[in-house]
């Protein structure tokens, strides 16, 4: 397993990071979730990403149980704040000082740890002054409850504004967590150039497009039983944008490319996002341990320019590149 520096910091993360969005505490039973975390450790993965909003805190609880007994200094634990938790009162979401300070304590309690390595703003809060948010994050770092601060799905301008304030307060934003895959490239035009200028890495989620890029979904055929597209607990909602006949047909054209390289389609998809030098890590999720082991083998894979060209030609016009697709919620969620 290869590791990469996060932004201009001295922190290294495993370039394949295990994340438990959708799965832990909801789609996957706890025993299976813990088995997936152990498979990640066996594969050399040291970095684990979660959020207090995943399954209303249950995902953090499951991860805390799964890593209990591990040497804490050998792990990088990432979590986030923004989405509603608890009874969803007027201050149970967003990036106010109150919500940040209360949320970090809740996350540490559920994760059974004294600190997280990276604390992330899960979205940009349009209702809270950015100065208040960044001051709260500075205080979280000074308290020792988080070592580094990152964000998720921020626009280029939001990254610039946030980094300027962070520097004034004595810390830096080191990461942004956007969606990124062969099919969803909206960060390339604006976010990545700004992040490179600012010393911010991308820790990307959905590199296999919720499983669509595994090739398991065939045009004109029903989704396989037990797959994410059949999950009634929420997983099916997130994959629907990739279930069109044209998109699935284009995805099937990637199969010979992966075969020529001796890779599975999932490995090809994960390796593809890691070719972007601004990407520090690709977050993978799993419902079975063997999926973790399979995806982790994408670490260290190098794709030649002719391979990248073949991928672009195969997917053609089903790729989304519009930078305006990086958006903040118009108001705090309730």
Describe the structure using short key phrases.
globular; 334 residues; TIM Barrel; two-stranded antiparallel ribbon; alpha/beta
Query: What is the 3D form?
Result: globular
Report the CATH superfamily: NADP-dependent oxidoreductase domain
Structural class: alpha/beta
Low-confidence stretches: none
Strand fraction equals 5-15%
Q: Give the strand order, joined by hyphens, for the main sheet.
A: 3-4-5-6-7-8-9-10
Element pattern in H and E: EEEHEHEHEHEHEHEHHHHEHH
Major sheet, described briefly? 8 strands, parallel, barrel
* CATH-defined fold name: TIM Barrel
**CATH class value:** Alpha Beta
| Whole-number tally of structural domains | 1
The tally of strands reads 10
State the CATH architecture: Alpha-Beta Barrel
Mean pLDDT: 92
Q: In whole angstroms, how far apart are the ends?
A: 40 Å
Number of helical segments?
12
Approximate helicity band: 25-40%
Radius of gyration: 19 Å
How does this model look, in words?
By secondary structure, the protein is α/β, with parallel strands linked by helices. 36% of the residues lie in helices and 13% in strands. The protein has twelve helices and ten strands. It has an eight-stranded parallel β-barrel, surrounded by six helices. The protein has a two-stranded antiparallel ribbon with strand order 1-2. Helix 4 crosses helix 5 (156-168) and helix 5 packs parallel to helix 6 (191-198). The radius of gyration is 19 Å and the shape is globular. The model has no long low-confidence stretch (mean pLDDT 92).
């Amino acid at each position: 397993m290869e590791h990469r520096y996060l932004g201009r910091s001295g922190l290294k993360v495993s370039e394949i990071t295990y994340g438990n969005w959708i799965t832990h505490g909801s789609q996957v039973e706890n025993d299976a979730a813990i088995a997936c975390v152990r498979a990640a450790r066996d594969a050399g993965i040291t970095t684990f990403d979660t959020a207090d909003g995943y399954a209303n805190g249950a995902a953090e609880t499951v991860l805390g149980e799964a890593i209990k007994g591990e040497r804490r200094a050998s792990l990088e634990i990432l979590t986030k704040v923004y989405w509603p938790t608890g009874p969803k009162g007027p201050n149970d979401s967003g990036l106010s000082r109150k919500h940040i300070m209360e949320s970090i304590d809740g996350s540490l309690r559920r994760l059974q740890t004294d600190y997280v390595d990276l604390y992330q703003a899960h979205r940009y809060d349009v209702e809270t002054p950015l100065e208040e948010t960044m001051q709260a994050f500075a205080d979280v770092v000074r308290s020792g409850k988080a070592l580094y601060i990152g964000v998720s799905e921020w626009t280029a301008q939001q990254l610039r504004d946030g980094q300027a304030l962070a520097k004034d307060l004595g810390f830096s934003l080191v990461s942004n967590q956007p969606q990124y895959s062969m099919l969803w490239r909206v960060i390339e035009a604006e976010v990545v150039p700004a992040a490179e200028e600012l010393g911010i890495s991308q820790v990307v989620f959905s590199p296999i497009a919720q499983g669509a890029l595994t090739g398991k979904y065939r045009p004109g055929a029903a989704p396989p039983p037990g797959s994410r597209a059949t999950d009634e607990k929420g997983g099916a909602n997130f994959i629907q944008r990739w279930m069109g006949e044209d998109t699935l047909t284009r995805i099937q054209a990637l199969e010979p490319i992966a075969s020529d390289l001796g890779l599975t389609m999932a490995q090809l998809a994960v390796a593809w996002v890691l070719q972007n030098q601004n990407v520090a890590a690709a977050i993978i999720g799993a419902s079975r341990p063997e999926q973790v082991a399979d995806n982790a083998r994408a670490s260290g894979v190098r794709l030649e320019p002719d391979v990248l060209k073949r991928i672009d030609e195969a997917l053609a016009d089903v790729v989304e590149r519009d930078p305006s697709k990086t958006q903040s919620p118009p108001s705090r969620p309730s």
